[in-house]
Write a sequence for this structure.
């Protein structure tokens, strides 16, 4: 699968609600195509934050809608990160 | 896009539309999250549909504008460069392990593993399948250096320097997960830090690798757990984490699925497949198993051993010694074998009782789909049906 196909696959997984698998694939994507440890660090944090919020949702002790919004913000950051990784990967190829 | 039904179908269409027309990545991402909301029914469907309409208009306005066309050009260039670099790296993949006429003779039992010729590459999963006591574990132990071969040559071109092959050096590069897992002391995190450090990963890199693999394998809730606090499935996942944290290029797993439930098997195999096929750190994986169907779906190539010899080495679902037959497993709990033979007589089917299921063989000019159709039309309940025409499972039924 090419880099573009992998990115598309991750988006499709998010779009179909298969977020857990999407995050795993996103971690693999950043690990494979990311050009620095900062990017790896960021995807690890994204995964950690997402599942921390998920645990709070499961415990039912906070506003569900607000937690869902938090998760959406985290996913938005993840999707943006994928674009950044792809662009940096392509730029190193063009050099 | 004119349909506005309030279900997940709208979400799929929105995603496809955005993939094609959303030049602004923020709009693309908004479409992804909106599609997710449809899929998970997170909000009032009418509100989601209204948001979709607004988003579509923004996407179209952006696409039609001059800036939009400039963006399209830049994106096309980025994608072309990414693809070029990707293909260059893939083309450079090499062989990791080469076996030529490898054999092992056990005089006391008269068992002889013989004529093993294999070439295993980075980024590929090879499944080794075979009945018990037919040489799988023997072959595995020869490959990982636990047993000396009697015949042939075994090479690790990427691990050897010149003509010198140091087994001590090679074994340090192989991640081997035996069938009987060895308990470890300490918490998961402590063990992972130790494994990474032992393989030369230091300081902040060490912590980052450990954090990455913990998150990647879904182990964050267990980082403080010790061996005796874990279920079988999580023990294996811990072993995988231990193996993967230091980025091996060669991984060998002996019957990893043996003690796992179905869900755990699927998770482990899925993770293994994605990690083996990594672009940056591809892994050559060998996995032995009796779970034929599961391995067929994940392996890039299959090796079947019988009485110490290779009876098949090739891609999954390309095994077909009986070109003239279609073969399937079948289970009909309320119908006897004679009834099924009578019903399938027009297809010249041969039906055998194999204990836990029936085996049906149909000449090539007919199809298994037709057989299934006839059974159902006759009101026969079919509890299980699997086409094994191209599966190595046939070997276990004596078809090879």
């Amino acid at each position: 699968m090419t880099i573009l196909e992998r990115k598309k696959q991750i988006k499709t997984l998010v779009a179909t609600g298969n977020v857990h698998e999407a995050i795993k694939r996103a971690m693999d994507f950043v690990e494979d195509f990311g050009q620095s440890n900062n990017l790896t660090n960021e995807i690890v944090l994204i995964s950690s934050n997402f599942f921390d919020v998920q645990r709070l949702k499961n415990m039912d002790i906070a506003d569900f809608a607000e937690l869902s919004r938090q998760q959406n913000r985290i996913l938005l950051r993840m999707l943006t990160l994928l674009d950044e990784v792809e662009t940096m990967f392509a730029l190193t190829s063009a050099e | 896009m004119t349909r506005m039904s309030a279900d997940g179908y709208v979400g799929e269409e929105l995603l496809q539309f955005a993939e094609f027309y959303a030049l602004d990545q923020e709009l693309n991402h908004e479409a992804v999250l909106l599609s997710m909301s449809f899929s998970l029914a997170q909000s009032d469907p009418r509100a989601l549909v209204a948001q979709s309409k607004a988003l579509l208009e923004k996407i179209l306005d952006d696409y039609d504008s001059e800036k939009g066309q400039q963006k399209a050009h830049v994106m096309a260039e980025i994608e072309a460069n990414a693809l070029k670099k990707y293909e260059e790296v893939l083309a450079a993949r090499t062989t990791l392990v080469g076996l030529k006429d490898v054999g092992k003779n056990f005089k006391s039992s008269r068992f002889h593993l013989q004529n093993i010729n294999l070439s295993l590459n980075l980024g590929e999963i090879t499944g080794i399948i075979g009945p018990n006591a037919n040489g799988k574990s023997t072959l595995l132990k020869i490959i990982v250096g636990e047993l000396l071969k009697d015949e042939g040559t075994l090479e690790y071109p990427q691990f050897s320097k010149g003509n010198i092959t140091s087994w001590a050096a090679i074994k340090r590069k192989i991640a081997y997960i035996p069938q009987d897992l060895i308990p470890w002391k300490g918490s998961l995190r402590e063990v992972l830090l130790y494994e990474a450090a032992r393989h030369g990963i230091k300081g902040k890199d060490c912590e980052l690798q450990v954090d990455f693999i913990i998150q990647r394998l879904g182990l964050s809730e267990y980082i403080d757990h010790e061996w005796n606090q874990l279920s079988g499935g999580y023990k294996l996942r811990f072993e995988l984490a231990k193996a993967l944290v230091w980025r091996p290029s060669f991984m060998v797993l002996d019957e990893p699925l043996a003690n796992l439930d179905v869900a755990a098997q699927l998770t482990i195999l899925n993770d293994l497949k994605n990690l083996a096929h990594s672009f940056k750190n591809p892994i050559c994986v060998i996995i032995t198993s009796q779970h034929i169907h599961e391995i067929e779906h994940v392996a890039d190539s299959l090796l079947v051993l019988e009485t110490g010899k290779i009876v098949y080495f090739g891609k999954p679902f390309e095994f077909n010694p009986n070109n003239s037959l279609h073969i399937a497993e079948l289970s009909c709990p309320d119908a006897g074998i004679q009834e099924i033979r009578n019903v399938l007589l027009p297809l010249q089917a041969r039906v055998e009782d194999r204990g836990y299921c029936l085996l049906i063989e149909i000449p090539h000019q007919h199809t298994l789909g037709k057989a299934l159709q006839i059974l159902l039309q006759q009101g026969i309940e079919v509890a299980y049906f699997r086409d094994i025409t191209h599966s190595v499972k046939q070997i276990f039924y004596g078809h090879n």
User: Anything to note?
Assistant: The CA atoms of residues 45 and 80 of chain A lie 14 Å apart. The interface with chain B takes residues 2-4, 8, 11-12, 14-17, 19-20, 24-25, 27-28, 31-33, 37, 40-41, 44, 47-48, 51, 68, 72, 75-76, 79-80, 83, 86-87, 89-94 of chain A (CB under 8 Å). Residues 3-90 of chain A form one domain.
